[in-house]
What we know:
Blueprint: E1 4-11, H1 17-29, E2 35-38, H2 41-46, E3 54-57, H3 65-78, H4 83-89, E4 96-105, H5 111-127, E5 130-136, H6 146-152, E6 157-160, H7 163-180, H8 185-188, E7 195-198, E8 222-225, H9 229-234, H10 240-255, E9 259-262, E10 267-268, E11 271-272, H11 274-284, E12 290-292, H12 298-305, E13 310-313, H13 316-323, E14 329-333, H14 336-346, E15 353-355, H15 364-374, H16 376-394, H17 396-413
Parallel strand pairs: 1-2, 1-4, 2-3, 4-5, 5-6, 6-7, 8-9, 8-13, 9-12, 13-14, 14-15
Antiparallel strand pairs: 10-11
Amino acid sequence: MKEKRLVMYMHAGSGNHGCEAIVNSTCHMIKEKPVLLSYYGGEDKKYSLRELCDIRGEKSFADHKLAHICYYLYRKLTGDEESFIRYRYGKTFREDIPLAISIGGDNYCYDNMRKDLRLANQAFVRKGTRTVLLGCSIEPELIKKPEIVADLMKYHTIIARESITFEALQRMVAQQQAGLKGLRSCDRARYNVPKVYCFPDPAFTLQKKELPLPSGFQEGNTVGINISPMIQDNEESAGITMKNYRALIRYIVENTGLQIALIPHVVWDRNDDRRPIHELYEQFKGTGRVLELPDGTCEELKGYIARCRMFIGARTHATIAAYSSLVPTLVVGYSVKARGIARDLFGTEKNYVLPVQLLRKEEDLTEAFRWLAAKEEAIRSQLAAKMPAYKEAAMQTGKEVDHLWEECSQQQRI
């Protein structure tokens, strides 16, 4: 009898410490040790996941050109698009998998990921596996597209991490159910309708690891700053993001007694926070007030962020590390995830999220920071009042996964 495996898939690798944080925190919530299918398995073994999961690197066609040609020809002849997914997941796909969890995040917001998301979901469902889309943020306009609706409706369960996505998913499900009302009950039974929940991102419960602070990092008197190439790619005025960050650092150095820690949260070669961070550090290192933090695990980076007085962040999970540590935070955002999380925490995203697309003047970020600094204590108090219940709600993700795992296992025993 085959061993039953709980699988996590569509994980991009721990070089993105937000991806690492979602898997890490989810693994700490659930009873079953999962198989983690990762496109960059070596990254996961380097950071915090090596003891938490059975890490299996996906097969890459880039490393097997002949296999790529063979599968391409096979797909052309048969139309079997899912064959690429079966190849990538290798022996795991041949195992007994009652439940498979798609590591949601904002995967659906990227054009280049949606086809793989659809094919993987479809392949698992065809195999008889229940699929869960976990901790997701999806732009509401995307949820209106027929091909995305058709994909989302195949999941057994969808867990949104903020209310904007949740409300859009609820509308989607209601519309689909309305379309089924005219069918006979036996015909309706052939159509899947996913269960939809809204629980905060699992990473709100991420544990922190406090390493010794580097020279110049004054606990409780340091502003943490994170910048990413991703927000630079979404700016509407070329170079405006870096101009704003330079102006902000200059303002802090000249008008406050605060130290500044530049903190990376994604370190992929193709999308590395350390590049713009190092550029800023080189410009301001002579002040003696700015330091550049090294890479670390998601838990170690949270340990640094938690000891900041305030935080300005572009990466979602860097800001989640700050929020969950009661650090007043300004998000330099570009998508639904930043707006939705801020709205759920504070009732509004206004002043808490500065969309990079709205940067016009190089003082825009500085003005937003001045508002944050003026409201610092009130925001910290608000986070302190909100966070215990918010973290408890985040734990519901683990309870739902455990429930589904037990339900799947029981059904297979019957």
